[in-house]
UniProtKB/TrEMBL annotation:
Domain of life the protein comes from: Eukaryota
GO cellular component, one term: Cdc73/Paf1 complex
Organism per entry: Suillus luteus UH-Slu-Lm8-n1
PANTHER family: RNA POLYMERASE II-ASSOCIATED FACTOR 1 HOMOLOG
Protein's name according to its UniProt entry: RNA polymerase II-associated protein 1 homolog
Family: Belongs to the PAF1 family.
Subcellular location: Nucleus
Main localization, broad class: nucleus
Amino acid sequence: MSLRKSKLDLLVRVRYSNPLPAPPCPPKLLDIPTNPLRYAQPAFINAITNDTPLPMIVDAECGMPLDLGRWECLWEEDGDDATLNPDPDNPPSLDPKDRFLLGDPSASSAPYINGSIPTASGISTPLPPHVPWLRKTEYLSREGVQRTPSSQESKQLLQPIDVSHDAQLRTIEAGFAACTSLDLTTLSHPNKTGVTAVESYEVLPDADIWANAYDLFRFSERPGERPVDTEDPRLDCAILRPMESDGDHFLAYYLTREDADALEFKDERLAPKRGEEIRATAFHFVRDYETVKIEQEVPNEFLLVLDNGDTGERGPGAYYKNIERKMTLKKKRMNQSDTYADKWQVVHISHVAMSSEEIEERNEALAEVVDPLYLFSRDAEGEVDADGEVDVGGMGADGGAEGDGGIMAEIF
């Protein structure tokens, strides 16, 4: 019992220790040498003054009574309000004690001016930024530096800005002049030292493919069941068909059996044969893919073609087309019992001429980049179609049909 009690006492003394502070004054019956100056310090009674409440009696008017009965215009309907609204041409006399309130604050009189601290020399230094204590110090030095505008910049800010139609045209033309007189040797690569520009292109929308909707697909592994180092010409003409089974959405992937069929199909798409027998290309089912991630907005990725103008069909330039969506796909688990309706094993695709409705729809999409008065015509019609409201029977990985024809599919 004594052993347990000693351990318990030790624990109690450690956990609940209550050390007494040193006495402010030595006991009267003991002669302890002390410095008399410690009693003359103002900080000696700080603890007492902090604990002593200040007696304050504040009335309802906070010590500033205002007798509203002196102004009859506040209570009478047709009273004279000249005493409340003095004449601005003949203002009343100001008390000399209040005259300093009308002066502009200066660095010598105001402690803080526009977030700065005045110094003895009259130059105000900016206050340090208020940041949370969890911020890293490497960001504080960047944010703490406040750029002081020079006198020349302040004069430019005060100058009036001409926003008339002629002034805007002059500003736009000056921008074109700056581009034409630009020296390419002065442009260097942002990451590679010593690499400079050798040629410039005008960035223009690609009218040849602007009517097509392009999606970017990323696979978790290479499709087609071929090694990575083996060339597969079938991949750039694959077919992706949207599917649904019990509320689950996925994509069915189709490829040609032989490489020659894929090459012939791509040649036929680039230069369709007129007036000859339509030849269909067979695409066979490979497997199903499920979407892992879908990005509806892709502002930083687009199709870009650098054309030197060798063909003579259009001038040289960098022609671009935006990407509608970006998807990440992975293989869907295949189960023997996983059967769904409307499953196609083989799809025969051939080239057919576009109908009048398809041509009209394509011309409406091209008017965005071909017709200079496109915005005015849309405002006049008062109808703006929503994005993504085009019914598509199938979805191709290569972006859709060309301008002079469409795709016809036969299912077996």
